[in-house]
Each structure stands twice: as structure tokens, then as C-alpha cells.
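Researcher: Sequence recovery benchmark, item below. Answer with residues only.
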């Protein structure tokens, strides 16, 4: 895959009341909406799902082509590790990190603006950092992997803390980069906003 996005969707969605990938976004489940947004932006993706969510999504032409499993009981960093490990045999130039509850930007130029040869990049909107975050593969092997190896419980690590010394921020004009759909109310507001229109 060419600079894939890791879609982190293995969580239980406790605040949402159900796994966020399965939220109803109108005429389809949220994972299908996200996949359409990624296709529109011409971004490859590797989906990190719990086995339970994967069983519901199933397989076939509508499902994501690339899926790996992570335990829904483990912290988010466990999903990041699973996704990275799945790419080690044929590592890309870099990866994007996108939690399932952040709407995928549909603008290919925004994704490309985050590319860097050697340091992580993150978008910001009105001074607030958001997603997707770009991680160069060299940063993963030279900085992230040693931190993982030295940790007593690697899954308890937090990517935001590991990024703090080196991440560069790029101001963007898309407010959705800082949108987090954590609760049913958050999701309702998003669906009622112009930003959710697939033709906008």
C-alpha cells in the first residue's frame, strides 16, 4: 500500500453506546461512509477492528480490503502497534493515523500536505491539533520502536506524548480534522451539519 491510513476502530465505543464503526450515518453504517471518504481522497487504508466488529462488517466488495484484528479491551496504542506490525514486511514510506471517530478528510491535497521525509506532521484547526497524523516509517523504526521495546507495557503508551518532542503542525482550513464523534449527540450534530454531505 502507498502511504496507508491506519483506521483505528477496535474500541467498544462505550460513550457512543456501541462500536463507532457501526454507527448509522443515514443510509449506511459509519464504516462505509469513512471508506467512501478515503476512496474520494485516494487514500489506501488498513483497518484495525475487533473480531466482533469484523464479524458484523463481514467480507466482500463493500468491506475494507485490508483488515487486522486488535483486542477491544486493550488501549488505543495496541491497535496502532497491530497496524504497524502488519506493515513491517513491506513497509511504506509512512502511515497516517486516523481514529474511526474522526471524519476522514475528502481532500487529497490535505493528506499530501502532511507528508514529511523524517518527522511526524499533524493538522491543526484554530490552534487545536487533530487527525490524520502522518508518521514517517523512519520515525517509527528509529524513535517509536525503541520506546516500545523499552516499555514495561507497550500498549499503555500514548502516541500524543511520544510525538510531543518531534511533531510539526500544519494549519488547515478543514474543521473536521478536530472533530471527534464520541457520543450520540456529537454524531447527531455532525450528521445535521453541511460537512456530512457526501456531495459538498
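Model:
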Amino acid at each position: 500500500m502507498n502511504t496507508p491510513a491506519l483506521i483505528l476502530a477496535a474500541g467498544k465505543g462505550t460513550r457512543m453506546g456501541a462500536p463507532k464503526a457501526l454507527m448509522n450515518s443515514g443510509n449506511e453504517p459509519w464504516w462505509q461512509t469513512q471508506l467512501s471518504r478515503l476512496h474520494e481522497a485516494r487514500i489506501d487504508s488498513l483497518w484495525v477492528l475487533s473480531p466482533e466488529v469484523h464479524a458484523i462488517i463481514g467480507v466482500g466488495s463493500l468491506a475494507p480490503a485490508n483488515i487486522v484484528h486488535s483486542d477491544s479491551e486493550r488501549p488505543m496504542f495496541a491497535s496502532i502497534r497491530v497496524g504497524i506490525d502488519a506493515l513491517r514486511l513491506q513497509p511504506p514510506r509512512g502511515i497516517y493515523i486516523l481514529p474511526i471517530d474522526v471524519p476522514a478528510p475528502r481532500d487529497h491535497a490535505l493528506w499530501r500536505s502532511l507528508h514529511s521525509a523524517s518527522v511526524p506532521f499533524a493538522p491543526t484547526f484554530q490552534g487545536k491539533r487533530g487527525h490524520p497524523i502522518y508518521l514517517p516509517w523512519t520515525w517509527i523504526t528509529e524513535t517509536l520502536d525503541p520506546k516500545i521495546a523499552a516499555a514495561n507495557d507497550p500498549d499503555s503508551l500514548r502516541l500524543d506524548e511520544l510525538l510531543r518532542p518531534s511533531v510539526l503542525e500544519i494549519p488547515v482550513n478543514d474543521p473536521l480534522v478536530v472533530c471527534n464523534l464520541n457520543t450520540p449527540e456529537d454524531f447527531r450534530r455532525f450528521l445535521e451539519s453541511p460537512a456530512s454531505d457526501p456531495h459538498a
